[in-house]
Structure formats: structure tokens, C-alpha cells
């Protein structure tokens, strides 16, 4: 049953990212090569599959997005995140941040996938807050929120325009870091 669960979650993560959360159960189970019955034995609803698929991709997404534990100054570590966005935003299969995309599509604040997405964004904001504090920001919490909003905006811009963010994500983050007093040292 674990193999079935893995196939279902892998297919769900791919389909929901590429096509949106309104992918039907039929398409989902077909892509995963599992029966609807098997899906409902593992999960109570498509909503639970969506939430579980986001939980499954979160560690890999974080590993891609965030720098290693000992890489650079706090400023460099924060800017790393924005450089990654700039790199991936030019890829033809870039559809933005999967957590933000899910939250935008799902209107109910109580949806289990929104909770997973919010948790991921809270973790990203906490990363920014820790780095901002280590870099000497006057108000690390405020800067962290601004950086998360900038990240989400850059991600959305990349999707909307389809040709990357043209260095603007890093520049915007640098302006915020400069204004907050987070230098490269």
C-alpha cells in the first residue's frame, strides 16, 4: 500500500502543480495508476490527497530554495532564495511557488491544503526572520514578512509574464535588506 500511496502523492504533486487543484479524481488516479477505491482507502478525500502531496514536496522544495546551514552571511543566505527564484522562473515548467498557487486557488481558509501551504510560508518567513536578526535588522519580523511577500510577488510575476523576473527579485530583496541595515558582513 505504501507504493500505491507514493505513486498517488507523486502524481498529485505533479498534476496539481501543472494543472491546478481542480484536477479531478479520475485524472489523478489514472495518472497514478491506482484505482479510485485505493485512493479512498488511503485518503478520505481529494482534499486530503492535495494536502498530503504538499507535505510530501515541502522538504525537497525547501532544500532547493534555502542555502545550506553554513553558506555565507545572513544577507547572502537571504539573497540565495531570490537567486533560486530567478533561476527557476525562466524554466518552461515553472508555475510559481506550489504553496502560494494552492492557496490562491483554494478559497476556504479551513481547507487542509491551505493549512499546509500556510505552514510552509510560515517556515520560509521564519528563515528570513532568523537571518534578518543575525544580520542586525532593526525589525527582523517585519523584514521577514516583506521578504516573503517579495518572494511571492516574484514567483507570481514569473508565472504571469512567462519570461523570468529579470533580476528584479534580487534587486528588491537588496533594497529591503539595505533599508533594514542588513549588510554583507
Automatic annotation (TrEMBL):
Keywords: DNA-binding, Transcription, Transcription regulation
DNA-binding region(s), residue ranges: 24-43
Record's keyword annotation contains Disulfide bond: no
PROSITE patterns hit by this protein: HTH_TETR_2 (PS50977)
Disulfide bond keyword on record: no
HTH tetR-type domain ranges (all copies): 2-61
Superkingdom: Bacteria
PANTHER family: HTH-TYPE TRANSCRIPTIONAL REGULATOR YJDC, TRANSCRIPTIONAL REGULATORY PROTEIN
Protein name: TetR/AcrR family transcriptional regulator
Amino acid at each position: 500500500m505504501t507504493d500505491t500511496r507514493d505513486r498517488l502523492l507523486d502524481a498529485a504533486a505533479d498534476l496539481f502543480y501543472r494543472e491546478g487543484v481542480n484536477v479531478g479524481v479520475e485524472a489523478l488516479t489514472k495518472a497514478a495508476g491506482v484505482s479510485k477505491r485505493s485512493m479512498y482507502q488511503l485518503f478520505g478525500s481529494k482534499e486530503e490527497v492535495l494536502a498530503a502531496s504538499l507535505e510530501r514536496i515541502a522538504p525537497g522544495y525547501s532544500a532547493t530554495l534555502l542555502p545550506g546551514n553554513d553558506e555565507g552571511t545572513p544577507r547572502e543566505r537571504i539573497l540565495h532564495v531570490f537567486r533560486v527564484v530567478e533561476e527557476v522562473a525562466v524554466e518552461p515548467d515553472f508555475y510559481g511557488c506550489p504553496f502560494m498557487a494552492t492557496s490562491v486557488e483554494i478559497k476556504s481558509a479551513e481547507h487542509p491544503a491551505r493549512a499546509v501551504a500556510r505552514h510552509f510560508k510560515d517556515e520560509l518567513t521564519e528563515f528570513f526572520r532568523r537571518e534578518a536578526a543575525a544580520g542586525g535588522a532593526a525589525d527582523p519580523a517585519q523584514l521577514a514578512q516583506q521578504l516573503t511577500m517579495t518572494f511571492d510577488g516574484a514567483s507570481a510575476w514569473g508565472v504571469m509574464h512567462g519570461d523570468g523576473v529579470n533580476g528584479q527579485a534580487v534587486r528588491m530583496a537588496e533594497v529591503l535588506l539595505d533599508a533594514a541595515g542588513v549588510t554583507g558582513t
